[in-house]
Design brief:
The chain is mainly β. The protein is built from no helices and seven strands. Strands 4-5-6-7 form a four-stranded antiparallel beta sheet, with no helix packed on it. The two termini are 19 Å apart.
Amino acid sequence: MEYRICTRCEGLGGVTASACGRCGGVLRLADETEYVGHQFGSYLLTAVIGIGGMGVVYRARHVRLDKPAAVKLVPPQGSAGEFD
């Protein structure tokens, strides 16, 4: 799966976009391991579990509850998008 990540805010951009839908920054091509070690909300992503046509599933840990979890990141479709 192809990801584009904003060089300014590190947001996930649309697969065909050239500018970030959130801040207007430049998007760069990245692979699915780019987010390992990042925290989304209360979840710390620790490893890639699987990659499919709709997104990437990560092994994660809920940082406050200290419980394992799985988190799926789905890139926005289209030319410009935002992922929160």
